[in-house]
Input
Amino acid sequence: MAKTPLDERLREFMDRYIYPNEKPFEDSLRHNRWKVPELMEELKDKARAEGLWNLFLPDSNFGAGLTNRQYAPLCAIMGHSLIAPEVFNCNAPDTGNMEVLVRYGSPEQQDTWLKPLLDGRIRSCFAMTEPDVASSDATNIRTDIHADGDSYVINGHKWWSTGAGHPSCRIAIVMGVTNASAPRYERQSMILVPMDTPGVRLERRLSVFGYDDAPSGHGEIVFDRVRVPKSHIIWGEGKGFAIAQGRLGPGRIHHAMRLIGSAERALDLMVERVLNRTAFGKPLADQGVIRQWIALSRIEIEQARLLTLSAAEKMDQAGNKAARREIAMIKVVAPRMALSVLDRAIQAFGGAGVGPDTPLAQHWANARTLRLADGPDEVHLDQLARDELKAARQRMEQS
Amino acid sequence: MAKTPLDERLREFMDRYIYPNEKPFEDSLRHNRWKVPELMEELKDKARAEGLWNLFLPDSNFGAGLTNRQYAPLCAIMGHSLIAPEVFNCNAPDTGNMEVLVRYGSPEQQDTWLKPLLDGRIRSCFAMTEPDVASSDATNIRTDIHADGDSYVINGHKWWSTGAGHPSCRIAIVMGVTNASAPRYERQSMILVPMDTPGVRLERRLSVFGYDDAPSGHGEIVFDRVRVPKSHIIWGEGKGFAIAQGRLGPGRIHHAMRLIGSAERALDLMVERVLNRTAFGKPLADQGVIRQWIALSRIEIEQARLLTLSAAEKMDQAGNKAARREIAMIKVVAPRMALSVLDRAIQAFGGAGVGPDTPLAQHWANARTLRLADGPDEVHLDQLARDELKAARQRMEQS
Amino acid sequence: MAKTPLDERLREFMDRYIYPNEKPFEDSLRHNRWKVPELMEELKDKARAEGLWNLFLPDSNFGAGLTNRQYAPLCAIMGHSLIAPEVFNCNAPDTGNMEVLVRYGSPEQQDTWLKPLLDGRIRSCFAMTEPDVASSDATNIRTDIHADGDSYVINGHKWWSTGAGHPSCRIAIVMGVTNASAPRYERQSMILVPMDTPGVRLERRLSVFGYDDAPSGHGEIVFDRVRVPKSHIIWGEGKGFAIAQGRLGPGRIHHAMRLIGSAERALDLMVERVLNRTAFGKPLADQGVIRQWIALSRIEIEQARLLTLSAAEKMDQAGNKAARREIAMIKVVAPRMALSVLDRAIQAFGGAGVGPDTPLAQHWANARTLRLADGPDEVHLDQLARDELKAARQRMEQS
Amino acid sequence: MAKTPLDERLREFMDRYIYPNEKPFEDSLRHNRWKVPELMEELKDKARAEGLWNLFLPDSNFGAGLTNRQYAPLCAIMGHSLIAPEVFNCNAPDTGNMEVLVRYGSPEQQDTWLKPLLDGRIRSCFAMTEPDVASSDATNIRTDIHADGDSYVINGHKWWSTGAGHPSCRIAIVMGVTNASAPRYERQSMILVPMDTPGVRLERRLSVFGYDDAPSGHGEIVFDRVRVPKSHIIWGEGKGFAIAQGRLGPGRIHHAMRLIGSAERALDLMVERVLNRTAFGKPLADQGVIRQWIALSRIEIEQARLLTLSAAEKMDQAGNKAARREIAMIKVVAPRMALSVLDRAIQAFGGAGVGPDTPLAQHWANARTLRLADGPDEVHLDQLARDELKAARQRMEQS
Output
């Protein structure tokens, strides 16, 4: 099997183990939504055994060593199912957190937290967004991290920490202010906070539309005089912004890829549906409006895919920072595209589209959230425009 | 208080009793989602005491005797909150069912079912859509109703029966085939089926974008050799289609009105939010893009409102059938408008927009469903086009 | 005939005299585009004889004395054809100019200019927009009007003065600065400038999407030390802004009404086309996509019509100033709606849609311009949002 | 200079010779719109001298021998200006006609017509679309070509033959029916008809929106008993469809590329405009709405560019036929994208956007036409959907 290309192996795995287990997985949560179903651990074992594990990590010491361009189509395949990424240990926010630890973690931090994360034995969360401020402007963040002897003491209020509610979640990466009077982009730090530290309180799990996204969930967390050793700081004081910039690039492109998978799933389902369903005397597939939906969906997916692959290449060749413009573009494009394709599929399915019998509505809710997570579209569009205007100003001055 | 106009009284009631009770109502469901909270009964008592009760019913023997045009703005006010309509005994599908019983019910049927419904003592559901066929084409419906001695025996499978899961739901109006060889539009009948009749099985409650809409819910029901007395047929055999036509008009216009209320709520919340929230150094309200959203939302709401009022007037003056075109238009326009306004509000709120702390996401899920319920947009648009083409053909023949 | 309602008479006139003369009118311009065809004068005589003349003017001393609400549907009918408004002496900018003279003109000004305009013997233009500044912000206007003895001397550069190129254009209403140090909204005045005054130079006629709109046209005019008697000022120095506000309301609503007519014409043509044209084995009218276009067009027209009528009523009942919000809404809605409907019709016609054999492309160009004339959409939307925000602020302060 | 990459040389040529000559070129047509300005011949000489000539032709015996992928960005640069393609001998429909003669022409045909076309000494037109039938379905075409002795006699009525009105147009490629009873796709042939053959009548030149597109223009042509030698048939009787398929691929991708150039030009102009223009106290470039326009335009252009390049690569690697899906996608995407970007630019320019002082309105009219030329969007979308459905059906049968 070793010679079979990864995408084929992945597709086969999806067909064999993922799609047929979506409903059993959901059913297994019926009695206790916040316990990891054994089914998930079995699926993870299978994926690990077949070498479909940690494919997201470009660093070959720890992971598969694939480039972004190589990982992109694989990530899109995983995106077909909302339960798949965890099976392959490729789900947000753990992938982003692992990248942070690979790049910026101390050997001790890597040993303690990265290793079990790479093994899929524990989960993690990322605590950045705060309820009281517009966190799309990260300089607004208020959580306080102050040194006290050999410790840091953390006080703050976070929410939308995806994964914080996961029963295996053991560690949070927390963003907060270590020095409010430092230069603007050196005020923030990131620090590792074990979830069982006294003073860490999971206030509640937030639903997205009506979905609790169990057993992962989105946590609202209060940090109330939480004390951790100084060694828990990542990279160093004042590096929070720099780490965030490094973290967000791959995170955004992974989201974009998964959304392309969401859209592909929707189009597949829609096409099958309209081939099998009859109304007013002819199959839905023979109705012109439906056919326009199919064609437009294919076009939108294709355009988003090409843009994402192009961004991945730029990241591989020139680095995450140089690819800022491209990353901003896919951050805006991918969720809009997925929402548009999913919405058409929902419309083609009628009641089954909004209900629990297709994955469409939940994929939609996920995609809608991604127009907000890591900053709303408008922030990214504004930044893109500033770059265009700056380039034009330079052009005009030269001529 | 008698002289205060109804809309003012209603607005006051909303401010005083409804908005502040939205969260307590949701909280009261925490331990048992399928039990009616006492809070609801208290609110209903208050509404009844203030004469804000059964305002939907144009028939003055039973209800408030308001015209559609008079009821429209009141219904829009109720639509601001998803818990309000039941408080005023004006919620779907009970309003539609009560109208059916007022117009087509026998004195005995009215006595047994209409009276407790008007009193708000019981709830009802409407069982029309079926999972196995494209029910937007009602001639597809397969549920079988056959006479057997003094009884009818019913066999069928229905879903998306809103209210079927409500703990007070006692009666279903079921649509099915009594004579498959009758002329196309005389094959169907409607029949009253008490929910506790042997063979009626609530298979499950369906969620909509993750929302269970407790304690009402959307039921999937199996009717397995269900036997009811012949007197339970409404109006007579073969009248199902005629009743459906009569029922759907008011139902659709009520939905449209409530959606205008949803959108007004969203715009109110968005405007307050952007006045109070700062990002990148200035209030969101000072950002041009947000201001375009506000203005476009106002315009879209205003246009939908005028169209709905115009349809209501036509119904009052010329009857539901003559207003078919107008009703089809608002059926298409109102959900799209509400979705557009709600989506902008969600975007302005960020995480709070998709989560449980604002009512936006649930209003959105409700509005999205209404692009499908009672037939998808495409069916109504197609019918509208046929009418235009028919009129043009006549014009062309005359000239 | 006196008892026949005006709309019926107008429709009949359109059928009999306008539509059949569109092509002959265009042909008559072939050899000299800037000469008024005799055909136009004949049509005007007919319209005047049938009492279909000056219907736009609410002032019954001078015109038909119809309210805005009464005139609206008539104006929409005229809007079906681009040559119709002049035939009925109801074309822009003459209607707006006549309104200015009725309201603010001195008896002498009315005698000299209003009378021949009402008779249709001369035409006029309105010189406001300037090429060098963003005129959507009227405080930017730079044309200088300074007193010199018994005269005013005018220096400035204007463009997009519709009608300035018309061979019968005799008079311009010019907006300019009389006192740059007055309070912001009292700096501007309006003044009457006969087109044959020395120093008035029609620089060129501007085309709109390639159309010269002969024989009316859009003029670029230079005013080079133009001297007129002091009596030519309208109302008084510093009243320019106040007059503009008064003038723009009716002007905008007339444009909106005519655009509804444009859209109705487009829909009529599209429907006839698709009934008569076959592709891929069936009439275009049987293709689902085309039918969606027809239905959406009907809905959009209907919504714009209701909004315009509602604005007209508000103007009649509360005055132009109080109806500012409503006028801003139709200013935005009507051109967008017309463009959308016209674009679908163009698509249904193929080559004939973009070429000279249907009036669609020219109506489109006209509608596109009206998203800019009297201020671009964005300015009106921004103003609408400010009003919403202001109202919300007041609401929030009170509660 | 030989080593400078083609795109740089082309860009330099555009800056130096094309943009500054757009207005002089238009001016030179003032007195006689249907005479080739000397300026054009001078520019062609310059382009030829610099080796920027016939770049479109992949066949290296006749042209530059570039692949589609290599030519694509060059073609996009040319698309910045509507006068540029002819300067480089790369304008439609001549490029398509030259490709036909390269691939399917006899040596004699190549000698007589291809050579002077490649030299830019004559121009040609393509006569396919007919006014009386929906030509998007090419089987509808009615023009009759029947053999008579050593000749073919042609009778038919064509329109939208771009270039037919060009003063240097010497030759038409005409599509017509040679055998109405042959299999469906073998009924049609293409034949060379010199424009001075007796019976060829240029009925009129059609305008697009208000543009006559002089000195090229779009002709309506009547073929009235036109007699040409049998040797004028291209490839052979019944090959019309096959040639059309071969011709349309490159033609469509060239259009797409040029449209990307149109959009780039619009974005450049818009950005410069908003940096230089102030309204309501701040530069337009500081207004959020305008910035969203800029960012969305950049994203849309980028996505269309990637899709077009991807189609070009597929054509190079797998052939025009295998790239059918990709070609259909860019046929739909490119005009829509260009229209969207151009429309924003027009809105940012106000009056100057719709008038003659910017090239925006004419680019817009051109792009709008390209949603219709070579078949309306709807036909291509429908074909794309059929392909998706067919693939899905096969997938479903296999599993």
Notes: Chain C touches chain A at residues 287-290, 292 (CB under 8 Å). The longest helix of chain C spans residues 240-276.
